[in-house]
Structures are given as structure tokens and as C-alpha cells.
Amino acid sequence: MSTLVEGRNAVLEALRAGVPVAAVLLASGSEGGPIDEIRRLATARGIGVRTVSRRVLDERSVRGAHQGAMAEMAPFSYTPLAEVLERVGEREASLVVVLDHITDEGNLGAVARSAEVAGADALVIPKARSAGVGPAAYRTSAGALAHLPVIREPNLVRALERLKKAGYWVAGATQSATTVAWDAPLEGRLALVMGSEGEGLSRLVEKACDFTVRLPVAGRVGSLNVAQAATVLAFEWVRRRNDIR
Questions:
Q1: Pair (128, 40) in one structural domain
Q2: Cα–Cα distance between 89 and 166 in angstroms, integer?
Q3: H or E, element range at 121
Q4: In the chain, which ranges are continuous DSSP H helix?
């Protein structure tokens, strides 16, 4: 099923962020600045624009605030883990970021942005009890989701075992770890596992990690949010590479 993006500004943001939009729906009689810009951007991307009655939009609206504009988002195409591992091949350095039931779509997009900039090969998320790739993720990813493969796995523990067999060390990020990130082996083939916003790493996922790491805290706030922590740890992996300057 497609996801609906409602509201003039939301539709504009989706078009600007490169969200895979299947169609744009505009209420008959709607015109002016934002509506004209929506038409222009959609036409430039080859996206069909349909003019419908306002009643049609009212019936399809979930929030009741469509402002005469909606976009139908095409389903996101997830990538199989086997395909990513085939692309990586025998390369010595590879980063895969694994999200252990992150429920905020904005956080997912923010992590994807940092992972892509750091040169990660993929982002792994679970199928159940997790945010998927939707409009909010596209907005916060700033275009990264158009380039970074996202793998959706039914069982994260099994996915981690497959990564281990492919030569990855699995590092779990948790503030209860005894090892500081700067002292941990965060190089080479690394699967970096980030826990959920409220619960952190789940018990079975943490047990499947080869080791756990934490970021040192100098201030009074206990920890960073998941997107900020993922950024720091991903770039610690980048820092240790000799082929990036």
C-alpha cells in the first residue's frame, strides 16, 4: 500500500527530498505559490498530477488537513542482505549500521544520513516493532536514502550471525558497556548496532554482539540520542581508515 503525504508544505518537502512519489493529487480550483511549485516539481520529476474534487481528498485524508494537496508515496524498495554482501565482496573495510527497533522515523532518517556520509554499505532494520522508510525518514535523511541500501530483516539476531559469517565484528552501543569506543576495535568489517530510543539494546541482540561500547560522557546529560551516537561511532570507524582523507 502507498503512504499518503498530506498538506502543501509536506508535499513540497517530499518532492524536494526525493521521496519516491507515485502521484500528486490536487484539489480542483487550487492554485497559487505552493500549489504552482508542487506542479512544477512533480512535472520536472515526471510524476503524474491529478486534479480531483476536494471531497475526494477529504475522504482520503487521515489528519483532515490536506490543504488541497496530497502525494501518494510509492512503496520503498528494501534490499536483501545477500545482495549487499555480494556487493561488498572481499573488501577489508565495510560498515553496516543495525537499528534495534528504532521507532521514530525521523531518527531512522537521521541515522541513514550519517551512515551514508560515513560510507556505510547498508542500514539494517527489523520488520516488526520498528519504523520503516516513510516520508519523515526521507526528510531527515536529506537524500541519503536514495543512495543507502536498507535491509529489512525478520530476525535481527539471525542477520547478525550472517554478518559474522561474512567476516564482520558486531559492536553494540550501550552506556552500560565497560569499554570506551576509542579503545574498542571499531575498524575493518564492522556491524554497528544501535538500540531503541527508550529501551536500548534488546537482550538477545546484545547477547549476539561480539562486544559492546560506550561513549564517554563529560557533561550532566546522561547520553546522546540514537542518531547523534550513531554519527560519532560511525565516524570513529571512518577515522581509523587509511584510505579516506
A1: no
A2: 9
A3: none
A4: 8-16, 33-44, 54-60, 81-88, 105-117, 135-141, 156-165, 203-208, 226-239
Are the C-beta atoms of 123 and 112 separated by less than 8 Å?
A: yes
> Hey, which residues does 3 pair with through a beta bridge?
73
pLDDT (0 to 100) of residue 1: 46
> Has residue 196 been placed in a domain?
yes
CB contact at 8 A, 127 and 221: no
Is 96 within the bounds of a domain? yes
Whether residue 105 contacts residue 138, with contact meaning beta carbons closer than 8 Å, is answered with no
> What average pLDDT does range 51-72 have in this prediction?
86
237: how many CB neighbours lie within 10 A of its CB?
22
Range of the domain at 10: 3-73
Q: Are residues 62 and 128 in the same domain?
A: no
Check whether 40 has a pLDDT greater than 60. yes
> Does residue 53 sit in the same domain as residue 98?
no
As a whole number of angstroms, the distance between CA 37 and CA 162 comes to 46
Q: Would residue 18 count as lying in a domain?
A: yes
Residue from 87, 72, 57, 68 nearest 22 by CA = 72
Domain membership flag for residue 245: no
Q: Compute the mean pLDDT over every residue in the chain, rounded to the nearest whole number.
A: 90
Q: Walk across the sheet containing 48-52 and list its strands.
A: 3-6, 69-73, 21-27, 48-52
120: Cβ–Cβ under 8 A, 6 or more apart, which residues? 95, 96, 97, 148, 234
C-alpha 11/C-alpha 27 separation (Å) is 13
Residues 67 and 88 in one domain: no
Q: Check which CATH number belongs to the domain holding 197 and give it.
A: 3.40.1280.10
